[in-house]
Amino acid sequence: MSALKDRLQADLTAAMRARDELRLATLRLTLTALKNAEVSGGEARDLDDEEVLAVVRRETKKRREAAEAYDAAARPELAARERAEGALLEGYLPAQLGDDELAAIVDAAVAESGASGPQQMGQVMKLVTPRVAGRADGGRVAAEVKRRLTSA
Questions:
Q1: Distance (Å, whole) CA 147 – CA 73
Q2: 2: which of 30, 64, 73, 122 lies 20 to 30 Å off by Cα?
Q3: What is the pLDDT of residues 117-145, one digit of tens each?
């Protein structure tokens, strides 16, 4: 069993003891998503830490999108709940890259690929994506690459 999944289980138990309803509900939904990922496909299997992180990232993204939808529907109390759940899950993810760090990685990839315009964005993204692996949102990375290539 992965270390991250063990931590989620332990935190679920602690949330039960503390009667922390938000943490309890969030962790239950996340662990259910993990169980579903384990049994999807041909046969059941244990997920490694990278696969568990991918599920937690997906759950965090769902919370962010739900909060935006609730904001659009003028339901601020539900949006706040989704944001709180997302923030709780972000605590299990690796630290996100700062703007300066991301810009440095993008600049290095642009220099390495020799890209000179927006039409070569795919080449740069191919180099940047593995370097930021889970430490920056894909949309944020794409926006930085596009900004860098249009200003070049």
A1: 31
A2: 64
A3: 888 888 888 888 888 887 888 888 888 88
* CA–CA separation, 57 and 124 (whole Å): 23
Cα 27 to Cα 33: distance, rounded to the nearest angstrom: 10
Q: What is the DSSP string of 42-87?
A: SS-----HHHHHHHHHHHHHHHHHHHHHHHHTT-HHHHHHHHHHHH
Helix (H, G, I), strand (E, B) or coil at 136: coil
| Residues 79 and 109 placed together within one structural domain of the fold | no
Name the burial class of residue 8, with classes exposed (0-12), middle (13-18) and buried (19+) by CB atoms within 10 angstroms of its CB. Answer: buried
Nearest to 145, CA basis, from 137, 31, 60, 83? 137
Q: How far are the Cα atoms of 22, 42, 108, 141 from residue 121, in angstroms, in the given order?
A: 41, 37, 14, 11
- Identify whether residues 109 and 79 lie together within a single domain: no
Q: Does the pTM exceed 0.85?
A: no
Rounded to the nearest integer, the mean pLDDT of the chain is 90
CA 78 – CA 59 distance, rounded (Å): 16
